[in-house]
Design brief:
Strand content: 5-15%
Order of helices and strands: EEHEEEHEHEEHEHEHEHEEHHHHH
Number of strands: 13
Shape: globular
Helix content: 25-40%
Largest sheet: 8 strands, mixed
Distance between the termini: 34 Å
Number of helices: 12
Structural class: alpha/beta
Strand order of the largest sheet: 1-3-4-5-2-6-13-7
Length: about 400
């Protein structure tokens, strides 16, 4: 699952991977020519000015390599971007919906191996230069005592996490619960709260989980379809169907559809930074909402930048065809979609609280009195921005 790994969050030692751009192997590259503001209703032609309100460069820490799932961020990069192979970052002017310079920069940092597989929530406290990061709620809740974060916008309404299986081997299986009833082994990364929750709720027996997944297709392929495996809806179905050693479709169910509905990859800040960043967030969060709409309805420019960075890093396989497919899959499955109303990017706080309660019920160590309002806020959301 070399390219599927662009999504998965793994836990390991912390490595700080950001240095001085003047001393790295950065190369200035020109973006594909296209107006990023051709769809949606975003900002006026006068542009949004963030200079003096936001940090000179808004630094966003992601959880893995560039991919379509991070497309809304790449949508906001101006044509003057630079890729640092050494630091695994891309930096450029931050542009608004109409392609106009906002007066500040945007730096997007790769995660996973680039930060020693550290969870983003923890790494944000190691590296104070990070403005915002991907604060997935299962991770954020578990880390809250030591590394409290507050999510401010959720480009993804549904977590892309899936369990997948071979429909030729198990033609009768339609859901994860069906796999559980059959006692099918499910190969997963260890320690996922969603696994413990599904076991407690009687969906999957505890003995069915095999926590030896290494992120590659080797085990699944070698088993010839006898086992199931975790993955992402916007990656593995394409990768396995086009994989020479497998070469046929897989079936899957979103973990979200089992009732385990953590927000995945919302953008969040260190909780203590709220007052300092409030004026910036009032302007920036609606820009993220609009860039998400613009990306998912017109992904070509951002995807081309993503592929350029992937090719420059030369560490994972991720193709232009997969990026295009992934953007379509994200839209078709409504992984990026409006929230509980007609607004994109807002949080259903009852859903957030339900996830907290599920984690507490299975005994995951975290503050027993943690509330949804401590993990997420809709304060900065523009309710007028959403997918049609």
């Amino acid at each position: 699952m070399a390219s599927a790994l662009v999504l998965l969050i793994m836990i390991g030692s912390v490595v700080t991977a950001c240095g001085d751009a003047d001393n790295d192997t950065s190369a200035t590259t020109q973006a594909p020519t296209s107006d990023p503001g051709t769809e949606g209703d975003g900002d006026s032609a006068s542009g949004v000015q963030l200079s003096g309100v936001c940090p000179d460069t808004i630094v966003i820490q992601t959880d893995w390599y560039p991919s379509a799932e991070r497309g809304p961020l790449f949508q906001m990069l101006g044509d003057d971007y630079q890729i640092s192979v050494e630091n695994k970052t891309i930096t450029g002017s931050l542009i608004d919906h109409n392609g106009l310079d906002t007066g500040v920069g945007l730096e997007i940092r790769s995660g996973g191996p680039a930060i020693g597989f550290s969870p983003v929530t923890s790494h944000m406290y190691v590296d104070q230069s990070i403005t915002m990061g991907f604060t997935s709620h299962d991770q954020a809740a578990a880390a809250y005592d030591d590394a409290p974060t507050l999510s401010v916008v959720a480009p993804f309404d549904k977590n892309p996490q899936i369990v997948m299986w071979d429909p030729q081997t198990y033609p009768e299986v339609e859901t994860i619960a069906d796999l559980g009833e059959l006692g099918v082994t499910i190969n997963v990364f260890p320690g996922g709260p969603w696994q413990e929750i599904l076991t407690r709720e009687g969906v999957v027996p505890s003995g069915s989980w095999d926590p030896s997944f290494d992120g590659t297709p080797a085990r699944f392929v070698a088993a010839g379809g006898e086992i199931a495996q975790q993955g992402f809806a916007s990656a593995e179905p394409y990768e396995y169907e086009t994989l020479e050693q497998w070469g046929r479709p897989v079936a899957f169910q979103l973990v979200h559809d089992t009732g385990v509905q953590f927000y995945s990859q919302p953008l969040g800040i260190r909780t203590d930074d709220l007052e300092t960043l409030r004026p910036c967030l009032e302007l920036f969060v609606p820009m993220v909402q609009q860039s998400t709409v613009d990306y998912i309805t017109g992904p070509n420019r951002a995807n081309a930048i993503i592929i350029e960075m992937i090719d420059a890093l030369d560490e994972v396989i991720y193709t232009a065809d997969e990026a295009d497919w992934a953007a379509g899959q994200i839209l078709e499955l409504e992984l990026i979609s409006n929230g509980p109303d007609a607004t994109l990017g807002n949080f259903d706080l009852e859903r957030v609280q339900r996830g907290i309660d599920q984690m507490i019920e299975v005994g995951i160590e975290m503050p027993a009195d943690l509330t949804a309002e401590q993990l997420a806020t809709n304060e900065f959301i523009d309710p007028s921005i959403g997918l049609p």
